[in-house]
Amino acid sequence: MVRGAMTTKIFIDGEAGTTGLEIRERVAGRDDLEILTLGDARKDLSARASVLNAADIAILCLPDEAAKEAVSLVTNDATRIIDASTAHRTAPDWVYGFAELAPGHAEKIAKARRVSNPGCYPTGAVALLAPLVRAQILPTDFPVTVNAVSGYSGGGKKMIAEFEDVSAPGHTDEAFRLYALSLRHKHVEEMRVHAGLAHRPLFVPSVARLYRGMLVSVPLQLWALPAGPGLADLQSCLEAAYAGTSVRVAPRAEAAALSTLDPEGDNGTDGMTLFVFGTQGDGQALLVARLDNLGKGASGAAVQSLDLMTGRARP
Questions:
Q1: pLDDT (average), residues 120-129
Q2: Dihedral sign (CA 126, 127, 131, 137)
């Protein structure tokens, strides 16, 4: 491809992985991007360093340690980085890549040299919690519980093989499993920091026999909150926080009409839908975020940050 006047050179480091493949698919055919590749030199450290430093933006789709190594290989001040690993998600000198996090946050991403792509579970949890904390509806020291179920693609190639390949080590016929029973899931601190919580949320993740799709839910005893909010207060807070963004807050009438919720309902999109469930007067609420764990929960978010950083999308 011949580089045009407004072309941005990007390098997807780890493009053979689940997230990398999805990003490559999303940017394929775009005439504003020139995609740099390593070809057969993927394991050649010097070749990798050369391509990283030649890129305007490098997108890292790597395990944590490999992502840290890739960052260390960038020796110039021009290459900007989007890191899809968990390595830098709470680092103070990296901008968190959730554009809708707070007013003005998309502008921070647009100007950033280092962007940490959010995890799929924290995307839903932070989307639900951060506006309530900012509005002082939810105290920072409140004991928060987050439950979630994801499609097995969220576990990468290893988990995909476990669910799909009968010859794979650890192959399973399970329909559903809880995991991270030590309560030490690597996304917990990311949720705490970016939701603005003082204490670690109690996080209960699970995986179901579906390839992609995700529900992240936060149950709340409203009577235990100092402000004594009702369902309408939660609804109004979320609607105000995400007005004019790709995060959709389902109207109360829509949520009230539902008796079940399909985790695959936002599949194939890079958006997210938030729901407020409960019965008025009962003093309880269930907040739910639904998203595609490979869309807004991974590759879609990375491309959103890429578009902000290149000026294709306006903050």
A1: 98
A2: negative
